[in-house]
């Protein structure tokens, strides 16, 4: 059976517990603010005008995402490969989702809202890191937010040191790209990435 409607979906899943809906907020309370202040990593989800979805990791020291008020967040967009997939999506479709993670915590914080790209220097100045402001920032107006239970991270044993792989079990970034891009040089890519990473 392929599920195609909400009513069909509800034949597979029983109704949610009342607190699943009760915990959803339309603003950032003190606990949401504290979680974001502790988080060095969030996953940004976006989609283009046709609904083609994307997810992109965003990371910096804890608290890199600024809470401007109880309805507004500001995320820096640091220098990267200039492909700007997420930003292009947001130009076409402002709806975004954010998933905040905190090392050692199994709960995550989910935020849904509308984003706009800001570039004025005054707005970006608080996001400066090592004397470098971002090229742009994402100003997100919060529509829904809630703390997500820890079962996914518990099942995955995400923070358990014993689950860390031996890095040799997977090729380097450069080797993967060299296998995918005709004529690419794995060592040159890895050397370039190492040099760029030293500047973080």
Strands, helices and their partners?
Layout: H1 6-12, H2 18-22, H3 30-38, E1 41-47, E2 53-59, E3 66-69, E4 72-77, H4 85-92, E5 95-101, E6 108-118, H5 121-124, E7 136-148, H6 151-156, H7 173-180, H8 186-198
Antiparallel strand pairs: 1-2, 1-5, 3-4, 4-7, 5-6, 6-7
Tell me the name of the CATH class of the largest domain: Mainly Beta
Helical element count?
8
Strand content: 25-35%
Residue share in helix: 25-40%
Please provide the ordered H/E string of secondary-structure elements.
HHHEEEEHEEHEHHH
Overall spatial form: globular
Total number of β-strand segments?
Answer: 7
CATH topology of the largest domain: Pnp Oxidase, Chain A
Mean pLDDT: 95
- SSE class: alpha+beta
Assigned CATH architecture of the largest domain: Roll
CATH superfamily grouping of the largest domain: Electron Transport, Fmn-binding Protein, Chain A
Distance between the termini: 49 Å
Total tally of structural domains: 2
Identify low-pLDDT runs: none
Strand order of the largest sheet: 2-1-5-6-7-4-3
Question: Overview of this structure, please?
Answer:
The protein is of the alpha+beta class. It has two domains: 141 residues, Electron Transport, Fmn-binding Protein, Chain A (Pnp Oxidase, Chain A, Roll); 34 residues, no CATH class. 30% of the residues lie in helices and 28% in strands. It is built from eight helices and seven strands, in the order αααββββαββαβααα. It has a seven-stranded antiparallel beta sheet with strand order 2-1-5-6-7-4-3, covered by helices on one side. Strand 1 and strand 2 form a beta hairpin. Helix 7 packs across helix 8. The chain is globular. 17% of the residues are buried.
């Amino acid at each position: 059976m392929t599920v195609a409607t909400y009513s069909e979906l509800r034949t597979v899943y029983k109704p949610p517990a009342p607190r699943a809906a009760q915990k959803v907020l339309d603003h950032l309370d003190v606990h949401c603010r504290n979680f974001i202040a502790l988080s060095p990593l969030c996953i940004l989800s976006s989609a283009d005008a046709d609904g083609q979805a994307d997810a992109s990791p965003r990371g910096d020291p804890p608290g890199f995402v600024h809470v401007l008020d109880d309805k507004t967040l500001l995320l820096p967009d640091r220098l990267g490969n200039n492909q700007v997939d997420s930003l292009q999506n947001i130009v076409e479709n402002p709806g975004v989702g954010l998933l905040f993670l905190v090392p050692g915590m199994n709960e995550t914080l989910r935020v849904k809202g509308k984003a706009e790209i800001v570039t004025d220097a005054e707005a970006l100045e608080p996001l400066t890191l090592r004397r470098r402001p971002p090229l742009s920032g994402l100003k997100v107006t919060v529509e829904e937010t809630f703390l997500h239970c820890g079962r996914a991270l518990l099942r995955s044993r995400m923070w358990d040191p014993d689950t860390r792989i031996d890095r040799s079990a997977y090729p380097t970034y450069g080797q993967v790209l060299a296998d995918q891009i005709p004529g690419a040089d794995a060592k040159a890519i890895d050397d370039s990435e190492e040099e760029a990473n030293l500047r973080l």
